[in-house]
Amino acid sequence: MTSAIRSAALIVNTRSRKGQAQFGEACKAMETLDFPVDAHAVPDPARLEDELRAALAKKPDLVILGGGDGTISGLVDLLVGQDVILGVLPLGTANSFARTLGIPLDIPGAIEVLRTGTPRRIDLGMIDGDYFANCAALGISPQIAQTVPHGLKKVFGRLGYLAWACYQFTRFKPFTLIVGEGPTAETLRVVEVRISNGSYLGGTDLVDAAEIDSGDIVVQAVIGHVKRRLVKNWAASVFRHKARHEDTRNFHGQALRIDTTPRLPISIDGEVLAQTPVTAKVAAGIIRVMAPA
């Protein structure tokens, strides 16, 4: 299928945990592809959008984004409406989007997907007017994202991130979720909310009701008045135990209104970019991505 690709652009966020160290390795590995790759290392995340716009102006058939979930989610808006295939080079900490698609997390494996994979049309999630690739969250995830020390993930990786998450857990409080509007709205006491286009969050398969090409957005609430419900749910999800479904409630739809008491920030693929109330939507089949055949 990749024989139809005549040119590609590679944009790598070299500020992501693995980006700078592995940019050279990726460029060397891509020399084996059957098409030329115009590679760009971008150490300043503020320059990523400009670099991608410049790359798109050259009309490549494939745009490969190298970085974590935040990098992909932050740039995916620019690919909507473009006649281009998205390629994924997972260089982040959790790489939830790549996991959802079944893309290997090592450079040779991810590049093999670029060589032998098949373009797959997928959905994107939306928070109000902002597209996102994988999952948004309310609760402890944005609290962690807002407070995590700069460079912690880059230096210590997932272990450092988990240690900071444990510290923030001691300061976290359950909250009230309202799904819908008017007399049909449902009110729940919850410890976490996941707005999911894909099944992975934080590198863990949490929302198995969500599929990346279903045409629905899934809002999953972890119900409870005490924080240990969240610990139980995450632990059961890590070990894929059936108990991961005991404390969750799923809402499906093309558009769902979401509010909280108190008002809370929302992390979108790891970056805090919104605040309740919001409308979560799905943009069905809006982009193509190179996925394993």
Total DSSP helices: 8
Estimate the helix proportion, in percent.
Answer: 25-40%
Uncertain segments are: none
Per DSSP E runs of 2 or more residues, the count of β-strands stands at: 17
Measure the end-to-end span. 9 Å
For the largest beta-sheet, the strand count, sense and barrel status come to:
15 strands, mixed
Mean pLDDT: 91
Strand content: 35-45%
Question: How large is the radius of gyration?
Answer: 19 Å
Helical/strand content category: alpha+beta
String of helices and strands: EHEHEHEHHEEEHHEEEEEHEEEEE
Shape: globular
Could you explain the architecture of this structure?
With 293 residues, the protein is α+β, with helices and mostly antiparallel strands. Helices cover 27% and strands 35% of the residues. The strands form two sheets. The chain has a 15-stranded mixed β-sheet that branches. A two-stranded antiparallel sheet has the order 10-11. The radius of gyration is 19 Å and the shape is globular. The N and C termini lie close together (9 Å). 45% of the residues are buried.
